[in-house]
Amino acid sequence: EGDRNKYYVMSHPEIDYNQLWTYVDMSELGWNPPYRGVRLMEIEYYDTRFLISFGGSDLAPGDSMQFGLAIVLGENLHQNPSDFHDLFDSAQPQAFYNSLDFSDLERNVKAASSLYNHLLYGLTGDVNNSGGVNLTDVVGLVDFLFLQGSAPRFRNAADVNGDCKVDLKDVLGLIRHLYRGGSLIRAGCVE
Predict the structure, then answer these.
(1) Per DSSP, what are the bridge partners of residue 78?
(2) What are phi and psi of 169, to 5 degrees?
(3) Which residue in 119, 4, 3 sits closest to 68, CA to CA?
């Protein structure tokens, strides 16, 4: 409780325990030993608002940063309603875990990731930010590169071959994609 403790939790890197395996002793792998004082179902409503983990940043008091958060859901995770009752054993949860179907959740995570990338970097090849890739993108890229035309809204969208440069190779890659079915590569460069 308290802001100081919440800040401490939020500012220190951690790997969160998977709630399904909280009773499995993995202390030899460096995890804390299982806490046997509370049953798994009793911590369902525990206040976890300040336990969201993400890494790669070191924030000092008073600093701030922007980040995206997606809440991704999936249907049909539980294939058989009685599996938890029939299969779950807190000391050996793997049988129950194997009965779960994560395929819809995985599809939705990929869709959320694609949407995030599109909003942040633009659609690869969509130089004019129209929402699709077509001949006008080739014209816009040529105009930008050789005729001092306006820059693409998302520079990564114009980096068709993913080499972190925007040049003639990208024009050729875009033409190859449109007329020969060549692939577009998502660039990992930061604008």
Answers:
(1) 100
(2) -60, -35
(3) 119
Mention every residue, 6+ apart, whose C-beta is less than 8 A from residue 173: 160, 161, 182, 184
d(CA 52, CA 46): 13
Name 100's bridge partners.
78
Do the Cβ atoms of 118 and 131 come closer than 8 Å?
Answer: no
Hey, is 98 helix, strand or coil?
helix
Task: Identify the segments of the chain with pLDDT beneath 70.
Answer: 1, 6-7, 9-17, 35-58, 66, 185-191
Tokens of 63: 């600093």
d(CA 87, CA 31): 25
Task: Name the residue among 22, 71, 62 with its Cα closest to residue 42.
Answer: 22
Is the whole model's pTM more than 0.70, yes or no?
no
The position carrying tokens 């911590």 is 43
pLDDT tens column, 4-22: 776 676 666 556 667 788 7
